[in-house]
Amino acid sequence: VETATTPQEDVASQPSSSDALDPDDERLARPDSPRLSDGTDAVFVEFLDFECEGCGAIHPTIDELKSTYGDRVSFVVRYMPLHTSSVNAAKAAEAAGAQGRYADMYDVLFQRQADWGHQDVPEEAKFFTYANELGLNMEQFRADYDDPATLARICLLYTSDAADERSSVDLGGRRIIKKKTNNRTALCAVI
Strands 42-48 and 156-158: what pairing? Predict the structure, then answer.
């Protein structure tokens, strides 16, 4: 049996402005999530994979949105690394971010995605070339790239040899995707 609702009931069932998420709410963005702008009116969270062709295709639109609304909207990045070089690309962006150049590496990774993406072997050398082209301190870049804390910001590490071989598992409402990277299994949370 279907029941109809009145327009007033439909409006009443909608979240009120008091139900709106606070821009600093960790359900939207963790404190260590990279921010591409610092607007205070709203938060736009981009779940991305630098190697994803769809993410690359939408990048010009995201740039246009940042250009138009970046003074009012906080653009935040969350990772969803699902491809061969995704984790390494995110590590490169994070390592550049440690030197204040996250946004520059973010742009380069998408602009040159066709040069490094969708290879049989995970890419790393090109990311170091990009960092050098950006004028980054390469010793610091290498240290930050290799720092386990960098990887931890991207993925949850799980190193048990007895890991379940399913491609994903559900833990408390979060889908966890397993990805092999450098002889470790990275479990990346997808909310």
Answer: unpaired
